[in-house]
Specification:
Elements: E1 2-5, H1 16-30, E2 35-38, H2 48-56, E3 58-66, E4 72-80, E5 84-88, H3 90-93, H4 111-122, E6 127-131, H5 142-147, E7 151-153, E8 172-174, E9 186-190, H6 203-207, H7 215-236, H8 248-259, E10 263-265, H9 267-275, H10 277-281, E11 286-294, H11 303-311, E12 318-325, E13 339-342, H12 350-355, H13 357-382
Parallel strand pairs: 1-2, 1-11, 5-6, 6-9, 9-10, 11-12, 12-13
Antiparallel strand pairs: 3-4, 4-5, 7-8
Helix pairs in contact: 1-13
Length: 383
């Protein structure tokens, strides 16, 4: 029996590889000689770096960069064996890096994300996979560009300070000092967000409030991003403000697409392609996937449904193991998942679940595998 194991990590607890290894142990308790293939998965958000390093080989590198409010933070990124860099922008410019009392998207910056990209260039990388979820910023990627040598100038020819609020004073964009290595740099933007840059469904209106923006600040930030887009059109003759995904991560999506020619692909699709998951699915008998919580949001580009949709192309049954089943979790059955099992054996606290996570995953996988084998034996009897 061939089983493909393709889970996401359980946030704040087990990595995708650790979940996969626990699932493998559970399978082997029932079918000791099963062929098992572990493919750690992620959707472009937290855990993407670790999943791709584990799946493809490489190493985690720690680099000190500028945090969203101008301090310093040690951010981790992945260097794969083929010299591809994998970056989660949240490691340098993420919302959890800013204390709630200091959250203000008028001043937060993506400069640290630009420093990570520059570091990847220093390591002679020629390809970048960047996930841009969980940002603390609303600067349209301006800080990132400044770290890469772009000058954002006001009417007096002075460099703009950090933050989305300053963009309203932008008069000219000077790209003459932009890092020349970016010309031969392929950028894949792992993102599932389709928001335009501005307007009621834009970066400021939809995501600004969670970053500390009041209704008045949302209007101010939206106007600043609109002006930013106007100057880009004037100086570079490019207008990406309405392109789906331009508003991702406070407009960083547009900054990456305009200045780094990034190609936007749903995060789960990026990981599936990079790990060559489809190649190992073709002759599998069973697929295990999973994530910490499965609910109505899981149908929108999340790992379990992404894996299941590909497995269904070959008619392979898919079982998802999860920490919790949330609201309208049944919707994922329409996306190719055949069964969902929680790893909790009964009433249990979150602390207990996290402490015993590996054991719980092993046991749940063993039970799921036994049920699957019962189905196979029943089918043989009936036939």
């Amino acid at each position: 029996m061939k089983v493909v194991i393709a889970p996401q990590g359980f946030k704040g607890n087990l990595t995708a590889l650790e979940v996969g290894q626990a699932m493998e142990k559970g399978i082997r308790k029932v079918v000791p000689d099963a062929e098992t293939i572990i493919k750690p998965m992620a959707d472009g958000g937290e855990g993407t770096v670790q999943a791709l390093v584990d799946a493809l080989g490489g190493k985690i590198i720690a680099t000190e960069v500028t945090d969203p409010i101008g301090g310093r933070v040690v951010a981790q990124w992945g260097l794969l064996k083929d010299r591809t860099a994998v970056i989660e922008m949240a490691a340098a410019s993420g919302l959890p890096l800013v204390p709630k009392a200091k959250r203000n998207p008028l001043v937060t910056t993506t400069y640290g994300t630009g420093e990570l990209i520059k570091t990847a260039l220093d390591y002679d990388c020629r390809k970048l996979i960047i996930g841009i979820g969980g940002s603390a910023t609303n600067d349209g990627g301006a800080g990132m560009l400044q770290a890469l040598g772009v000058r954002l100038l006001d009417a007096r020819g002075k460099e703009l300070p950090f933050g989305g609020g300053a963009l309203v004073r932008l008069e000219h964009i000077d790209i003459s000092g932009m890092d020349p290595r970016l010309k031969d740099f392929e950028v894949i933007l792992a993102c599932d967000v389709n928001n335009p840059l501005c307007g009621p469904s834009g970066a400021s209106a939809v995501y600004g409030p969670q970053k500390g923006a009041t209704p008045e600040l949302v209007k101010q930030l939206d106007a600043a991003l609109a002006h930013y887009a106007d100057v880009i059109k004037k100086d570079l003759n490019i207008d990406f403000r309405e392109v789906p995904g331009a508003g991702a991560a406070g407009g960083l999506g547009m900054g990456l697409m305009v200045f780094l020619k990034a190609k936007m692909i749903p995060g789960i699709d990026v990981v599936i392609e990079a790990t060559k998951l489809v190649d190992v699915l073709k002759d599998a008998d069973l697929v295990f996937t999973g994530e910490g919580r499965i609910d109505f949001q899981s149908v929108c580009g999340k790992v379990p449904t992404g894996v299941a949709l590909n497995a269904k192309k070959f008619g392979i049954p898919v079982i998802a193991l999860v920490g919790e089943m949330g609201k309208d979790y049944q919707l994922v059955y329409e996306q190719g998942i055949d069964a969902i099992l929680t790893i909790a054996p009964g009433p249990i606290t979150l602390e207990e679940s996290m402490k015993e996570a590996e054991k719980l995953v092993i046991n749940a996988t063993e039970n799921a595998t036994r049920l699957f084998m019962c189905g196979i034996r029943s089918k043989k009897v009936i036939s």
